[in-house]
Write a structure and sequence with these properties.
Elements (H helix, E strand, L loop, with lengths): L5 E3 L1 H8 L5 H13 L6 E2 H13 L5 H14 L2 E2 L3 H12 L5 H12 L4 E3 L8 E2 L2 E4 L9 H6 L4
Parallel strand pairs: 1-4, 2-3, 4-6
Antiparallel strand pairs: 5-6
């Protein structure tokens, strides 16, 4: 798993700024710190969801959230949904296989060559369109396969 391209869901980004999230904050900060040196691509959707969530919840001011989005845009390659990703997401959502926004995230990441999305919000180990969801918050420490993905083993 060490050379695989992967992406981060918005919840990882949110926890990284939410100092009130305890261990999840610490783990998210570590994941992002390691991810920046790996083959990690962020989706515009995840950054948008991050911005909306942290400003709506009052975690940070709008200007600070905007600055953080720009910082991550400078650290990570970016990808956006295209027509194929949107079509795949609409189909998956209509069939009841995934929620629409989760399907957009996974199909967009897959279109960018990602085989893994780190997320707490979807079923750990679920696969859609060749993209597997891994929960970096599962267990008392980073799961072994996530550690390998991040270059820690």
């Amino acid at each position: 798993m060490s050379a695989e391209r992967f992406s981060l869901d918005a919840n990882i980004l949110i926890y990284a700024l939410d100092r009130g999230a305890g261990n999840k904050h610490d783990r998210a900060v570590a994941v992002i710190g390691y991810a920046k040196d790996r083959d990690c691509t962020l989706t515009i959707q995840a950054l948008g969801e991050f911005y909306v969530a942290v400003t709506r919840k009052g975690i940070v001011a709008k200007a600070d959230a905007a600055d953080q989005v720009r910082d991550w845009m400078g650290l990570f390659p970016m990808t956006a949904a295209n027509a194929r990703a949107l079509d795949g997401a609409v189909t998956a959502a209509a069939e009841g296989r995934l929620g629409f926004w989760d399907a957009v995230l996974l199909t967009t990441a897959g279109e960018a060559g990602c085989s893994i999305v780190l997320s707490e919000d979807m079923q750990d180990g679920a696969t859609f369109g060749g993209v597997t969801v891994r929960n970096p918050f599962a267990g008392p420490s980073l799961p072994t396969d996530v550690r390998r993905l991040l270059g820690l083993e």
